[in-house]
Amino acid sequence: MKSRINLSERPRQVARAAAWVPLAAALACLHGPVAVAQEVRAPLANAADPVPQAAVAAVPDAKDLTDARIVIVEWRIKKGREQEFLDYWSTKATISDRSGLIGEFLSRVEDRRQFPWMVWNLDPRWTTFVNVGFWRSGSDFHEQIGRFIDNSKPPLAFEAQKRRRVFVAPERWRIGATPFLVSDHKGVR
Questions:
Q1: Which long-range contacts does 30-33 make (Cβ < 8 Å, 24+ apart)?
Q2: Which of 14, 52, 89, 94 is deepest in the core (most CB within 10 A)?
């Protein structure tokens, strides 16, 4: 049985799908050959000699590498102060030069009662937000954010505890057919 297509909805569906395309292209850099593989070869006695097989195997394929980096921040926000935090993140913790930023997503953790397969232990004394930032390279992140991080500073007034942060280098990746968001949230500067 064929499903009926509501033609009045079609332009909106096409526009929504097309809106995802630019971010998908940006995220494709995680998949593309961003880093250049350096050759790992022993010096050859004669340029005409074949390259030893062990040396060839040691040279990583450029598509196996990426300069892209991901920063993950766990924010622990005092109950009742969530909006203050969201306002701070959206309007004060801004990134002036986004040329190296692929995308950044500040997310509230979903309810475990609705999604019982979640196994990340969360402290009920605070609301947990997770910020995931995708960067073109580690140096891009450092230039725009990292060099300003001072771990000796006390938590901000709305933080129940100091935030935790980890910087990761993609080892493997999959790029899906459904693209990410393509514009800032209306409340973000």
A1: 30/66, 30/68, 30/102, 30/134, 30/170, 30/173, 30/175, 31/63, 31/66, 31/173, 31/175, 32/63, 32/66, 33/62, 33/63, 33/65
A2: 89
